[in-house]
Design a protein that fits this description.
Layout (H helix, E strand, L loop, with lengths): L1 H8 L33 H13 L6 H10 L4 H13 L5 H16 L3 H10 L4 H8 L4 H16 L7 H14 L4 H15 L13
Length: 207
């Protein structure tokens, strides 16, 4: 019995082992060594850490970062100070963000100026910067992209009634932000090139 008691109470036992009790965080929360430390209490330090984490690998707008800090209850004056500092050192650049967004989304998704402007505004980009960014696309480039979109989809609509084809193709362009007039004009031209009767398509001319 004496040997068994010694084994339980010795240095390797569960109650008085060399590892000691589980560690606690700053606020008394039990944690293991593998867990993240308690977030910093200083608001400015917390704001900087949040912004750096959100900016890692993904550009963000000033508006997106400001909204993230509001959700974390960062004081407004602290948030403004941190955002201004990040702009000064080039970590936030809404103009560069907007320009890159327009180029990428237009070429990869075929989005028109109207859709691109809407996306940028929802991300908190200033209206003047939005106008400058979407101004990269002129009317000719937008029409050329619309034609490419219709040509890629045209084969899949063969066999459908004319009106249904037009509605489906024009709807594709409308969802990407193209105006109704441009969409109908592009679709009509594509169907004419395919051999559709031009006179029969007259009723689908944009007004």
């Amino acid at each position: 019995m004496r040997e068994e008691t010694g084994a339980l109470s010795g240095s390797g036992g569960p109650g008085t082992g060399s590892e000691g009790p589980p560690k606690r965080g700053r606020r008394g929360r039990r944690r293991t060594d593998g867990e993240e430390p308690t977030p910093p209490r200083d608001p400015e330090e917390a704001a900087r850490a949040l912004c750096l984490r959100l900016l890692t690998g993904t550009p963000r707008t000033r508006g997106q970062l400001a909204e993230a800090m509001r959700r974390r209850d960062i004081p407004e004056d602290v948030a403004e100070h941190v955002l201004a500092r990040f702009e000064d050192v080039g970590l936030i650049d809404d103009s560069a963000f907007a320009n890159a967004w327009v180029e990428s989304r237009h070429h990869s998704r075929g989005l028109a100026r109207r859709a691109l402007a809407r996306e940028l505004r929802t991300r908190g980009v200033d209206g003047e910067l939005v106008d400058e960014a979407v101004g990269q696309l002129d009317a000719a480039q937008e029409e050329a992209t619309a034609r490419e979109l219709v040509e890629r989809k045209l084969r899949a609509t063969r066999g459908l009634e004319r009106e249904k084809r037009i509605r489906r193709l024009a709807g594709l362009l409308a969802r990407k932000g193209y105006s109704e007039g441009l969409a109908l004009s592009v679709v009509r031209a594509a169907l004419e090139e395919e051999g559709e009767d031009a006179e029969a398509l007259e009723q689908y001319l944009p007004e």
